[in-house]
Amino acid sequence: MSPRLASLAAVVLTALTAAIALHFASAPRALSATAPPEVFSAGRAREHLARIAARPHPVGSQAHREVREYLVDTVRGLGVTPEVQATAAIHPDMEENSIPGATVHNVLAHVKGQDSRGLIAIVAHYDSVPTSPGASDDGAGVAAMLETLRALRTGPPLRNDVLFLFTDAEETGLVGARAFAFHHPLAEQVSVVLNFEARGSHGPSLMFQPGPGNRWLIQHLARSGAPAQASSLFDEVYRRLQNDTDFSVFLQRGKTGLNFGFLDGFMRYHARTDDLAHFGLDSLQHHGEVMLALARHLGDDALEPAPPEDAVYFNAGPFLVHHPATWAPPIALLALLAVVAVLVMGLRRGRLRASGLAWGAGALLAAAVAGAAVVQAAWWLVLRVDGGLGVLPQGDAYHGDFFIAGLLALTLSAVVGVQALFLRRARAEERVAVSVQSLSPHGALAEERVAGAGVQARFPRGALSEELVAGALSVWAVLGVASAFVAPGLSYLFAVPALFGALALGGRLRGPTVQPSARGRLLLALSAIPALLLWVPQVINLHVALTLALAPVATLAVAPWLAMLWPQVFAPMARPGRTVALPVLALACVLLGVGVVRERFDASDPRPSSVAYAVDANRGEAYWLSSDFEVDAWASRFVSADAPARRLDSYLPRFWRDVRVAPAPHRPLPAPNVRVTKDETRDGLRRLVLLVESVEKAPLLQVRFGAGTPLRALTIAGQPVDSSAVARLRDVPGGGLLEYWDVPPGGLPLELTVPEGARVQLRATAVRYDLDQAPGTPAAQRPEDTMPVPFGFAVTDETLVSVTGEY
Q: Which residues contact 785 (CB under 8 A, 6 or more apart)?
């Protein structure tokens, strides 16, 4: 085979390996409703999802009660007696400055085993946020549970108990999970928790968070036959972020398990368009196949105690590879030793130079910085060309696939361009004078043209490409060792490619020539296969998880990988800047241009627009509020673009930045009512019992204490707050906050203990997530190509009525 044909084969092999990696990283195809009864069918689960996600169903709404009744009826229809855990609950450890609470109704379906050794809890929450029907978050998990329960009932009974726990009030602060984990008698029996979530509308279901001592669970996941997509990289990243799901509550309770979720389509998250029309059924199929496989596998397992050991794990094509986390340092050190051995051999044989290795390492680091800078500049330019992208609160795009592909192409172009510059500089500087007699038998410094007794020989292209690979492998091996001790879950991404790269480079350096032979090219290309299998899916996952706003951060990880990979695949080649960098740059521009053209607001992909109506019942004043940086035509009818912006803690105590405020016509809307039911003083302490009544169709009641309120003890709806949480509320600069969803008809009872003689100031705010009572019927005038800002990102369509009193 000629070197040129070998180069072509290397490119084809690379593309094929990348395609295989993406194939196995994708969600399985959704099965229709006619699939065999013993298997999971997204088609059948979709029928449940259509009922669950028909409209937004936040805690305390009529739609929420209807979803709960549907769950109870469906579970009963599958031959299992449902239980509803109805209780007032709080989660005092959820927030630093506030305490969430709710009247929760968890739905339980307990399937008894024949000889149970433990209880497998399968968990998803059935409430949604006020701004979204919740098809993905978390209707998909709930629908998958109902279909999994049906499929399990078609087979023989399992050995162990399985609990299908449909939690309530997750969106309000994990309150339903807290009520079960800390107050339900079955919680003590739970051996494993399998939680299913979503942060988007489609994509593969990733196992992104295991519990502590997870090696035995990872072994079960690998043996279960589930089409799991899992990587200890996800856990290393997730544990460093300030995110929580119901799974967090079970970890606090000392339980272990696995947490699953899909991420693609972040712009649908908590939005009006998280509905059935924009939902990916393949994601539901993936959720369900994993859920059913694990339920059957763990349901028949002995569930024997395992040593508390963590694992490093990752997908390699169709396989889930795993090993003890304690092996990470030895594996990384082995890779480092292999790279060092190859470098020593290359230096001794005259095939590598110390300066060349420095060029190679420098090229990799420079490529990472240049890639991030170019991607940052490109995204800045895209935002200037398409100003609509800048108003999306999630920092992402509706159709991010073209943008991701374009930014990846741009990264590759920058990497190749930087390394081409390094090659050109190295070739220009490296000229050595040798005599014919001094040539080694291996021709280490030989050149095809020899003139007379002396040779003015340039270091050949093949050798310089080898030095690029060697320099990059050096950095990669060092990163592998460092990560093995700091974040062992991601060390495999560096150690494994470095080890295989060292073996291939060593084989090439042992050859008789530095010229680009077909064997050498194929050997380097083959050594890139592990890096491709491990990295290609994670490159996509990184961009999806971090969003386009943080694409430069993802580039800092992706660019070094490309810098190590491309010399293995394409080296040596003539003029890489012209043959690779420029064509790929042109492709990047085309992809980004297509992304800009596709990204247009319409009824399917609406623009988020923020308007709220706030009423101060004490003063008889009202205001329009908007958190938009750029006010659109609809919102400007109420809040002009030049309206002053300021912090408004009195109405928006959880919002961290300024909002636009404009005067609004006052409507005397019903306000919360605070009544004193008991006021007594004993032993120098005043015990004050209040009943705070909310208003109709206001699912959320906020109660904020005045700054400096000297709280000593607090009870909310009969639930005592621990002293550490009381101390945190007392120290909040603007005053501690209570948020309670679905206030009972008789009101929310609060019991406060303060020093004798102390007065208590409270501001009670009833929050409705609509503008139906606002003057001018703003909701009716909202254009179809706009929508309320997704809940949790900024001020959304809401009506806030507050009253302040001192007691």
A: 601, 602, 603, 606, 607
